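User: I'm new to structure prediction. If I give you an amino acid sequence, what do you actually give back? Let's try with this one:
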Amino acid sequence: MKKKDLIIAAVVLLLAGILALAFRFSGGEAAGSVRVKVDGKVVGTYFLSEEQRIPFDTKYGHNLLVIEDGEAYMAESDCPDHYCEEQGRISKTGETIVCLPHRLVAEAASGTEADIDVVAK
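Assistant: Good question. You get back a string of structure tokens that encode the predicted 3D arrangement of the chain. For your 121 residues, that looks like this:
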């Protein structure tokens, strides 16, 4: 490889890194609620503005969804891999937390009180 080849490779890698950071931190629209589904059916919609701890006890197992500081995360799960607890916090529209063994999906949605018909507590 020649010196020019190394410079071109370095520039391409630098640009790729800058783009990756831009996509990572640009994010989407801030969500207003979290919609929770079990077996594909909506079991509740919760506002991110209200701090709460919501247990989900289904025939598949137990999960505890926590909403605080405008973000939602899975604090507890009795599934074998606990992967849903490691997925982090969601607060932007379209972000999800998935617990496959329990068939549970929590999705951040852009709903406001005017957009949502029913809120489960």
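You can read the tokens as a compact description of the fold. Here is one thing that stands out. The chain has a mean pLDDT of 87.
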